[in-house]
């Protein structure tokens, strides 16, 4: 297993600003003077736009234009996916369809060099399958997900999972990013099937967002709920990390959402720039991606944390 061992239990109040990360990928990239972005571009009809050139993009950091030094249109860039399944009682009637669609999605999206893991969350956060390219193993893990069973547990991390009451949604995002994806390189995504309602986590929503940003992880949420779920929370998680929220109310919506997600993940632009701000102050730097053509809209993560020290 590739879960990092963390000896001391950290206080929840320290999560937002005092966690020391052991060289997460996002900071490594900044230390070598390149910030890497993965962008999705759509036209006014929401269709994916391909075939654009470097000159079609403009990157701003804290309002200042940046020089793009690396650019590529990526169709097959290696991908590491964390699939998170909400197994709380609110997903009872949709879980079977979710598992079937998720298995089909992974079989379709994963290619040579890609990896995926499977986690479930309800009263606990459970690791059902560690990173693997074995689709049979991933299918077995997905099929083991059951409503409110708890069980195996994610065995390390700063958050004690036993004895909690409610749906530990934020904890699951935090653990997936901090314990699992922080040590992975390249393009990383967390795909979550949930109604985005949390009533039991130890960490706050902002802690989950910050951890995803620090580990350079994009979050996609399939918001599965008959009444639309907590769209505000879902959009905060996805918008801040450069992902997308898909509202799912039935089986048809679920399949369409996975089709759209596949399209996004397999049609992105890789953009790199050397930040003009050289200060190593640990501060958050806001990123804005602009398109030269008003016909297009580009989406990427909204910022990153600069390293500290010399």
Give an overview in words.
There is one protein chain. It is built from seven helices and 14 strands. The protein is α/β, with parallel strands linked by helices and 310 residues long. It folds into two domains: 41-75 and 281-305, no CATH class; 79-265, von Willebrand factor, type A domain (Rossmann fold). The chain has a six-stranded mixed sheet, with helices on both faces. The chain has a four-stranded antiparallel sheet with strand order 4-11-1-13. Helix 2 packs parallel to helix 7 and helix 5 packs parallel to helix 6 (231-241). Mean pLDDT is 86; it is low at 1-32 and 150-164.
The number of E-state strands comes to 14
Q: Structural class given helices, strands, pairing?
A: alpha/beta
- Beta-strand residue fraction: 25-35%
CATH architecture of the largest domain: 3-Layer(aba) Sandwich
**What is the CATH domain class of the largest domain?**
Alpha Beta
Q: What gyration radius follows from the Cα positions, in whole Å?
A: 19 Å
Reading side by side through the largest sheet, how are the strands ordered?
Answer: 7-6-5-8-9-10
Low-confidence parts = 1-32, 150-164
In CATH, the homologous superfamily of the largest domain goes by the name von Willebrand factor, type A domain
Query: Percent helix among the residues?
Result: 25-40%
Number of structural units classed as domains? 2
Please work out how many helical segments DSSP would assign.
Answer: 7
CATH topology of the largest domain: Rossmann fold
């Amino acid at each position: 297993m590739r879960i990092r061992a963390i000896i001391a239990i950290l206080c929840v109040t320290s999560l937002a600003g005092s966690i020391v990360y052991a060289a997460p990928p996002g900071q490594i990239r900044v230390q070598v003077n390149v910030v890497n972005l993965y962008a999705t571009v759509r036209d006014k009809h929401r269709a994916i736009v391909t075939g654009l050139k470097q000159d079609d993009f403009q990157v701003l950091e804290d309002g200042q234009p940046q020089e793009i030094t690396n650019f590529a249109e990526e169709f097959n860039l290696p991908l590491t996916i964390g699939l998170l399944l909400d197994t709380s009682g609110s997903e009872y009637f949709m879980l079977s369809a979710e598992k079937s669609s998720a298995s089909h999605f992974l079989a379709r999206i994963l290619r040579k060099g890609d990896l995926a893991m499977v986690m479930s969350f309800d009263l606990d956060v459970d690791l059902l399958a560690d990173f693997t390219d074995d689709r049979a193993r991933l299918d077995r893990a997905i099929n083991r997900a059951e409503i409110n069973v708890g069980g195996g547990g994610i065995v390390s991390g700063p958050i004690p999972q036993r004895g909690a009451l409610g749906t530990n949604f934020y904890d699951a995002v935090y653990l997936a990013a901090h314990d699992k994806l922080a040590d992975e390189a390249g393009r990383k995504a967390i795909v979550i099937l949930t109604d985005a309602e949390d009533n039991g986590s130890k960490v706050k929503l902002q802690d989950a967002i910050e951890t995803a940003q620090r580990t350079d992880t994009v979050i996609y949420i399939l918001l599965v709920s008959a009444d639309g779920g907590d769209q505000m929370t879902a959009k905060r998680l996805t918008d801040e990390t450069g992902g997308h929220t898909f509202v799912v109310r039935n089986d048809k919506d679920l399949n369409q959402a996975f089709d759209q997600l596949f399209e996004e993940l397999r049609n992105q632009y890789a953009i790199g720039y050397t930040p003009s701000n050289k200060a190593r102050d640990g501060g958050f730097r806001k990123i804005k991606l602009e398109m030269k053509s008003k016909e297009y809209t580009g989406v990427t993560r909204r910022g990153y944390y600069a390293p500290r020290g010399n």
